[in-house]
Amino acid sequence: MTLGSLIAKARKDAGCSIDELAEATNLRATLLREIEKDDFSHCGGNTYARGHVHNIAKALKADERELVRIFDEEQGTEKRTIRDLLVENSVMRSPDQKRKISRKALLVISVASLGIAGIAQIVISKVSSIDSAVPIVSASPTPTDAPIANVSPLAQPTAQSSFSTGTGVSVIVSAVRAKSWLFVTDASGRTLFSGQISTGSSLSFTADTRLDLKVGNAGGVDLQVNGKKIASIGVDGAVVSVSYGVDS
User: Fold this and answer.
1) Are 216 and 175 in contact (CB under 8 A)?
2) CA distance 51 to 63
3) Which PANTHER family match (predicted)?
4) Taking a C-beta distance cutoff of 8 angstroms, is the pair 218, 54 a contact?
5) CA distance to 53, 87, 167, 174, 205, per residue, from 208 (Å)
6) Residue 83 has pLDDT above 90, yes or no
7) Domains plus CATH for the chain?
8) Measured distance CA(175)–CA(217) in Å, rounded
9) Does the structure show a pLDDT above 80 at 29?
10) Cα–Cα distance between 106 and 128 in angstroms, integer?
11) Is there a contact between 239 and 55 (Cβ–Cβ < 8 Å)?
C-alpha cells in the first residue's frame, strides 16, 4: 500500500471524515484528499509535506515515525553516482562505449604535446636564470618585532542567532519545549531564515514593516513580538503561519 492509501485507511478506521481531519490538523480538506491520492505537489515542498504527514498521523493516533519513514522512502530523491549523472547528461561517455580516434587526431595531439613541452622547458630555463641572478636577503628579527598572538582553540565563531532587514518590527522565537522547523520572510518576500531551531535555543528577527513566520511545531515554541510575549500560537506538531507588523 502507498502512503496515501495508508492514511486513508487509518482515517476510516478511526471513524474520521475528511472535514473532521481538516479541522483537527488545520489543513484544507482538498489538500487532505490530494495527500490520500499520493499527490504532495501542493504541500509547499518536502519539508512542509513531511510536517503534514506527521500532523495527520498524530491526529489519527497512527504510527507517526512509520508514516514519515514511508514518505521519505516514496518521495525521497534517488541516489545516483556522479558517473551516472555525467553519462546521462552526455558530459562523458559510458564505460562500455568505445571511442574511435583517427590517426590524424593522434598525430595532431602528439605534435601539440611536443610543442607545449618545448615551451615549458624554455620558460623554466628563463625563470631559473632570473632566480640565480637575484641575491637572497634574509631578515633578522628586531627587538621591535611584535610577537604573534596565540589563538585559543576555544575562540570559534558562534552560530548566527539574529537576522535583520530593518528595525521597525522584531520577533524572537524560543524553542523552549521542543525543536521546530521555521521559515521567516520580510514584507518584500526576502527569506531571513529557513531551517530548524533546536530545543533550548532562540532566534531573533527584525524588519522594516512586517515579518511572516511559518512554524512547523507551534506548541514547542514561544514568541516575543516587539518586546511583548504573546500567547501560544498552536499545539504540538501543528503547522502555523503568522504575521507581525510594527503595531503588533
Assistant:
1) no
2) 14
3) CYTOSKELETON PROTEIN RODZ, PTHR34475
4) no
5) 35, 49, 5, 21, 11
6) no
7) 3-75 (1.10.260.40), 162-245 (2.60.40)
8) 9
9) yes
10) 33
11) yes
The residue written with cell numbers 515515525 in the block is 65
Q: What is the spatial distance between Cα 67 and Cα 70, in angstroms, rounded to a whole number?
A: 5
Which distant-in-sequence residues (6+ apart) come within 8 Å of 30 by Cβ? none
For the stretch 129-162, pLDDT in tens is 655 554 544 444 444 444 434 433 433 334 789 9
Q: In a 3-state reduction of DSSP, which class is residue 68?
A: helix
Q: What is the DSSP letter of 173?
A: E
How many CA atoms lie within 13 Å of 227's alpha carbon, on the beta-carbon side?
Answer: 4
Cell 520572510 sits on residue: 185
Q: For helices 64-75 and 3-13, give the axis angle rounded to 10 degrees.
A: 150
- Name the residue among 235, 128, 120, 240 with its Cα closest to residue 181: 240
DSSP-based helix, strand, coil % in the chain, nearest 5: 40, 20, 45
pLDDT in tens, 46-70: 999 999 999 999 999 999 999 999 9
Bridge-based pairing of strands 162-164 and 202-207 is parallel
Residue type, 77: T
Give me the amino acid identity at 16: C
